[in-house]
Amino acid sequence: MPALAVPFRGSEVDFELLGEHLDRLVKSGVNGLFTVSTTGLGHAMGIRSKLELVKYVSENRKSAFVIVNVSSIEFEEIRELVKASERFGADAVSSNVMYYFRVDEEGAARFFTKIASMTELPFFIYNIPQNTGYNIEPRLVRRLKKELKNLVGVKDSSANILQIADLTTIEDLAVFNGADETTLPALIAGARGYVSALANVFPELFVELYRAYSERNYGRAVELYRKVLDVAVDLKAMSLNLSVYGALSTVYRREFALIEAFRPPTNDEREKILRAVGKYYAK
Question: Are 196 and 183 in contact (CB under 8 A)?
Fold first, then answer.
């Protein structure tokens, strides 16, 4: 499931290029799309653009499962995104914990409880402690799983395999790994699947890895995982968004632009991205 990268023209979504990108991802065999995400720059978008994106992705996802990340520090915005997800037919919603302002376990519990109560859609907790400043521990997830009838899963981007393994022991909880470097280890630890930033660039690689593991072709899965690590080391040596969007510009042979709040890659960074992408496709 790619964490859907979204191209922009200034502060506006480039829906023409996004449509091309969606077609490519769906044809590659991805099972789902995680949208309004970190990779998709959702936290930097205005509410109008977010609502437009939810509508477009929901209507153009073909058979792919759609999870809408409704994260915000403002409940009215969250409510709008939740209602739009329902209205346009998304399959589930997710949220990370309140960010910028520090929270504790009780604050996190209250935050997730309020969001889950807004809808009957399946709800996923999104744990990305390196960005929010707070790690959602399995202890809290266990508690909330008992209290929230629509809590169905966790997307954990901590890259902490021990934590992911612990989460997978919670009954009726779908755990998705969110760090590209831990795709195969997370599956072995019991994760249901993964949400990947680099799957935007190399969807076939991540689809084939998942299929190889699911079919118990473990030798092939390890071989493909080594390719994932090779790509991740090359591209994640710089900013994740710069590398993903720069690589997609190479794939589509035109600028897959970041929202205007972000700087574009430097010429040196573009050269590194070009070499990394070229090295993979030359194999």
Answer: yes
Written as six digits, the tokens of 31 are: 């099972």
- Examine residue 268 and state whether it is found in any structural domain, yes or no: no
Say which of 56, 126, 194, 225 is annotated catalytic: 126
Given 50, 56, 145, 155, the catalytic residue? 155
With respect to residue 218, please indicate whether it lies within any of the assigned structural domains: no
Q: Is residue 270 part of a domain?
A: no
**Known active-site residue 145:** no
Burial category of 45 from C-beta neighbours within 10 Å (exposed 0-12, middle 13-18, buried 19 and up): buried
Reported as a pLDDT band with limits 50, 70 and 90, residue 163 is very high
As given in the structure block, the two tokens for residue 87 are 């209205």
Count: domains in the chain: 1
Q: Are 252 and 20 in contact (CB under 8 A)?
A: yes
For the full predicted model, state whether its pTM sits above 0.90: yes
Distances (CA, A) of 228 to 54, 91, 179: 29, 28, 11
Per-residue pLDDT of 68-91, as tens digits, reads: 999 999 999 999 999 999 999 999
CATH code (residue 66) = 3.20.20.70
Element (H, E) at 276: helix 267-282
The answer to whether 245 is a known catalytic residue is no
Tell me, yes or no, whether 237 lies in a domain: no
Instruction: Round to the nearest angstrom and report the end-to-end CA distance of the chain.
Output: 24
Task: Report pLDDT for 23.
Answer: 96
CA 21 to chain centre: 15
Residue with tokens 């760090």: 179
What is the residue range of 82's domain?
Answer: 8-213
H-run or E-run covering 253: none
